[in-house]
């Protein structure tokens, strides 16, 4: 019984109260705990933003040092987890490996699965944030058939990740500071985004009392789809397929054609009806990084900029308020760093983990939280009597 509203896609349902992230979609504004994303991207760094999201305020120097120490202390994976990686086919998508390995963490870290214990919740949070770069890097190494590279805790979070992805044992590997700063900024830009599909998935999974690793695995699974985090891979593949600016009008026409399922990847957003502020920073970052690397005449970047220009002048995109989103320029930077497109979404997952965890912690500490249980409008058959198989 009871009255409820029909809201497919939850376009007008607030599922929780939250103090973490604020988005003004009309203005194109994104705030974490009140701080604008462009200030955080420029002046802060990923682990500081992690602290901000998790605990509500920017850390003091001592708090930051303590937090960085705790994260760094947990970067290693249980050695037996290497067998989990080895159980996958080599051609497995790294996201498939991550869903499996993160879910399997619940079988390894028994002292951080009791969600009623605040200390265990804290340890689970730190473990997930600390181990995600190792998991993503190992998914990549396994996929390309190279040996796993162990974390090196004298490096910062982004540099350590790059090294685990690109170093080869017995060979020197210096992390390029331009790349590690750009990597850190990409992490920062993806850290949280309030109640998007994967975050809502984490909250819904957790509402039953499921363990944290299972909940984050559910979030990773949801993120994978091309309408969500999978858009960064799909976007770069689309830009490559377009190839040269003269091909752009054809793709624009296809995106507008209702009979063609093709959409411009990296364009449009449920909440932003203006520029995605993350895309603005990402575009600027793409310019900077490619210039510093001396590859500013990158054809994919030229195609992306031209596509953006044409789309933003086209009535279809103007009327529907479709602007570039975070996924539009990130792939160009990741590609310049040497990542294959299959690693783009794992990098998104790695960075979003802190957002998922912050939202999960907030939900568990809310005394009013209850199991998520949407209703439906039933449109099926009315009551009818069973018919024996020989009489059908
Ligand atoms: N290209 C062409 N048309 C589009 C696009 C696009 N990228 N996005 C939306 N539209 C049209 C859509 O066809 C619809 O037209 P109509 O009203 O005539 O039926 C209208 O715009 C509204 O679209 P919608 O699908 O009802 O909007 P939504 O809020 O349900 O979807 C979205 C949001 C992000 C899934 C969608 O814009 C999309 O598929 N974009 C491409 C994939 C993408 O870039 N996703 C990344 C999102 S940002 C961060 C992240 O999660 O990774």
TrEMBL record:
GO terms, biological process: tricarboxylic acid cycle
Sequence intervals crossing the membrane: none
GO molecular function: citrate synthase activity
Keywords tagged on the record: Acyltransferase, Transferase, Tricarboxylic acid cycle
InterPro entries in alphabetical order: Citrate_synth-like_lrg_a-sub, Citrate_synth-like_sm_a-sub, Citrate_synthase, Citrate_synthase_AS, Citrate_synthase_bac-typ, Citrate_synthase_sf, Citrate_synthase_typ-I
Transferase keyword on record: yes
Highest taxon above the source species: Bacteria
PANTHER family xref list: CITRATE SYNTHASE
Similarity field: Belongs to the citrate synthase family.
Protein name: Citrate synthase
Native organism: Psychromarinibacter sediminicola
Lineage, uppermost ranks: Bacteria, Pseudomonadati, Pseudomonadota, Alphaproteobacteria, Rhodobacterales
